[in-house]
Specification:
Strand content: under 5%
Radius of gyration: 13 Å
Number of strands: 0
Shape: globular
Structural class: mainly alpha
Largest sheet: none
Oligomer: single chain
Length: about 70
């Protein structure tokens, strides 16, 4: 299963959460490009499904604790 679209959507959602507000957007962009390149080459060296699930959990956690600081 191709998780690129779901990963892209969730990554964009995380840009605006407190959970990642201290993470430079350039770093998130680099991660996205690296993953996309691996997936296009068919290598799947990075388990995008796992990363997508991690982002989902981080986003859910951030939504639950929006008012608390990290």
């Amino acid at each position: 299963m191709n998780y690129s679209n779901e990963f892209q959507r969730i990554l964009e959602q995380t840009y605006n959460t407190n959970h990642v507000k201290n993470v430079p957007h350039a770093f998130l962009g680099i991660i996205e490009v690296v993953i996309s390149n691996y997936e296009m080459e068919g290598q799947q060296k990075i388990p995008i499904k796992v990363l997508t699930e991690c982002l989902k959990k981080a986003l859910e956690h951030s939504n639950k604790k929006e008012s608390s600081s990290i």
